[in-house]
Amino acid sequence: SDALSCGADIVVQSAHKSLSSLSQTALMHLNTNAFSFQTDLHPEDVESIVDDSFSALTTTSPNSLLLASLDASLAEYQHSGTETLESLCALAETLKATLKKQG
């Protein structure tokens, strides 16, 4: 299970570790049921909380190279992510078998 399906309100995913994006890039995923334990919150309140928190923790001068890297890696994943992952898994299995033969 992933963190969102386990009930996390917000998850930050390091894109440079899981996608082909540059270092220091990440994606923030917001659960559709975020902050549901606070029954007095409306959807616009959740949006305001996330926006305020994000603004407090990020720069006012975002790096356009890093943002472009995120855009490009997401486009690449949407276009050929499954095939790329399958190819990498096959290569890993080949390497594993080769190393096992060599002892």
Short description:
The chain is mainly alpha-helical. Helices cover 56% and strands 10% of the residues.
Describe the structure.
The chain is mainly α. It has three helices and two strands, in the order E-H-E-H-H. It has a two-stranded antiparallel ribbon. It is elongated, with a radius of gyration of 19 Å.
Provide keyphrases for this structure.
mainly alpha, 3 helices, 2 strands
Order of strands in the sheet with most strands? 1-2
> How much of the sequence is in beta strands?
5-15%
- Share of helical residues: 55-70%
**What is the typical, i.e. mean, pLDDT?**
88
Structural class category: mainly alpha
What is the 3D shape?
Answer: elongated
Largest sheet: 2 strands, antiparallel
Could you give the distance between the termini? 34 Å
Round the Cα radius of gyration to an integer and report it.
19 Å
User: Which stretches are low in confidence, meaning pLDDT under 50 for 5 or more residues running?
Assistant: none
Please work out how many helical segments DSSP would assign: 3
| Helix-strand string | EHEHH
Overall number of strands: 2
Question: What is the element layout, followed by pairings?
Answer:
Layout: E1 10-14, H1 15-18, E2 26-30, H2 43-57, H3 64-102
